[in-house]
Design goal:
Blueprint: H1 3-10, H2 14-22, E1 30-31, E2 37-38, H3 41-55, H4 60-71, H5 77-111, H6 121-128
Antiparallel strand pairs: 1-2
Helix pairs in contact: 1-3, 3-4
């Protein structure tokens, strides 16, 4: 199948398929004599796997490792779990940082008069940090 068909079946855009190949997450596709990429049926599942990994927010580096582990039938699930646990920890940290930003911004918005006066605690805060 060609890249367009793979894209349609896997839900991954042609642009991202090319990027995943360039980044080494998957092997470069075989090519026809005229230079067109050619894919096999099993490539659909590989790209669906990658798509799901990315939907869950795994980095390209983690996705590459997960693809490698997925393909290795003698893998240790401990390594897969380690990658996922680290990702959960990273997401939790980001969530906590986002909550802090929301609290700070809500406080600043609440204290801003939002009228024609030039005084603005939002501007003051941005200026002072």
């Amino acid at each position: 199948m060609n890249i367009g068909e793979l894209s349609k079946l896997s839900g991954v855009s042609s642009k991202m398929i090319r990027r995943y190949e360039d980044d080494g997450i998957v092997a470069k596709a075989k090519r026809t004599d005229s230079g067109y990429r050619v894919y096999q049926d099993q490539d659909v599942q590989i790209f669906k796997f990658i798509k799901r990994s990315r939907e869950l927010g795994f980095s390209l580096s983690d996705t590459k490792q997960l693809v490698s582990l997925w393909r290795n039938k003698s893998r240790s699930s401990a390594k897969v779990k380690e990658i996922a646990k680290q990702h959960v920890q990273d997401l939790t940290e980001k969530l906590n940082e986002t909550r802090q930003m929301i609290l700070q911004l809500n406080h600043l918005v609440k204290n801003c008069h939002g009228d024609s006066r030039p005084d603005c605690p939002i501007i003051d805060d941005l200026e002072s940090h």
